[in-house]
Design brief:
By secondary structure, the protein is α/β, with parallel strands linked by helices. Helix content is 51%, strand content 11%. It binds one RNA strand through residues 16, 39-41, 50-51, 75-82, 104-108, 110-111, 114, 116-123, 128, 157-165, 168, 171-172, 180, 183-186, 202, 238-239, 241-246, 267-270, 272, 274-279.
RNA sequence: GCCGAGUUAGCUCAGUUGGUAGAGCACGCGACUGAAAAUCGCGGUGUCCACAGUUCGAUUCUGUGACUCGGCA
């Protein structure tokens, strides 16, 4: 397949609370598009307020994919996302519509636009636990040395103090008999990605985050978490490691006050924004960046039209 | 007015038996291939309240002053 034959994929990236949701719905309306969400926390039903998931009204009739597709105890991940996103994008193309990949989970978006070949080994929680227990005895660094002995290339890319990633690499090697570094590949993106980034000054973003969190609390974030627990979902689920949920859980368990929880949510969201920015940098030549402004949607529309025309030449 | 405690990084504070100082948080930055809103890493020069004294040398000791917080009037 040559690059001329590849179909376009509009990709919209940007930090949380920058305004991606309403802008992408606007653009999708103008281009007869559909939206594929690339947001690791919007998969789960019942987690609406804390994830700032778009409401039906905000979607304004634009089909959204990969939102509300799992219960909180079905643990979705990168590989499942990638498979389902490819599928959703292909189906949108088949319908003759334009797909918009929109979201804040940088890793997921990169896996699509860079055509990652993810080591085909689904999580084995028993092995992970065993490896973790082993690390408790010998230390994370010693475990990393074991990895280095059998797969130096993988070990080199993983900090010896990062137990979780060391464990994953060993898990893959043990289960597949193949080096993690060999299974971890990049191919090319099956689509022609057109990347647009939205940004705002940090200070402004932080203000919007604080406001958004106050709104979440007013809209019943605490009740949302309570009802998930009441529905029988274990607080131990990785799903509840989401910002907003972990802190409210601490509050509900009586470990901290609601005020402390609120401060923590704000703080953790700010840290998250900085971490998010690592996936898409201002000097990334693949991305056309926009600062949030009045006529942002018009500007972005113009850019998309031009890029789509270039494709058809 | 008197007595006591305090004044050190944006904030909360530690510390220097006298040789110009360091934690947490904030903030900035980086890594990331089946938990990713996860996980992990890197980044600390600031009139040590001001002035004077002692001293080779004071943020540290002494004196005076300013301010803050308690208590008593």
């Amino acid at each position: 397949m040559t690059s001329e034959q590849k179909k376009p994929l509009i990709v919209i990236v940007g930090p949380t609370a920058v305004g991606k949701t309403s802008i992408s719905v606007n653009l999708a309306q103008r281009f007869d598009g559909e939206i594929v969400s690339a947001d690791s926390r919007s998969f789960y039903r019942g987690m609406d307020i804390g994830t700032a998931k778009p409401t039906l009204e905000e979607m304004r009739g634009i089909p959204h994919h990969l939102i509300n597709v799992a219960d909180p105890d079905e643990i979705w991940n990168l590989a499942i996302f990638q498979r389902r996103a490819y599928q959703a994008i292909d189906e949108i193309h088949d319908r003759g519509k334009l797909p918009f990949l929109v979201g804040g989970t940088g890793q997921y978006i990169r896996s699509i636009i860079e055509g990652w070949r993810i080591p085909p080994q689904k999580p084995d929680y028993n092995i992970r636990e065993a490896l973790t227990l082993w690390a408790d005895r010998i230390g994370a660094e010693a475990l990393h040395e074991r990895l280095e002995a059998i797969d130096p290339a993988a070990a080199e890319k993983i900090d010896y103090r990062n137990l979780r990633r060391t464990v994953r690499a060993l898990e893959v090697i043990l289960k597949t008999g193949t080096r993690f570094s060999e299974l971890r590949q990049k191919q090319t993106c099956p689509y022609h990605p057109i990347l647009l980034g939205i940004d705002r000054p940090r200070e402004e973003l932080y203000e919007r985050i604080d406001e958004r969190i106050e709104t979440m609390l007013a809209e019943g974030l605490v009740q949302e978490v309570e009802s998930l627990i009441r529905a029988g979902f274990s607080p131990e689920l990785p799903t509840f490691s989401a910002i907003g949920y972990q802190e409210i859980l601490q509050y509900l368990q009586g470990n901290i006050s609601l005020e402390e929880a609120t401060l923590l949510i704000k703080r953790n969201t700010r840290i998250f924004v900085r971490r998010q920015a690592n996936w898409f940098k201002p000097d990334d030549p693949r991305i056309t960046w926009f600062q949030a402004s009045e006529n942002l949607v018009d500007q972005m529309e113009t850019t998309i039209r031009r890029r789509l025309n270039d494709l058809n030449k």
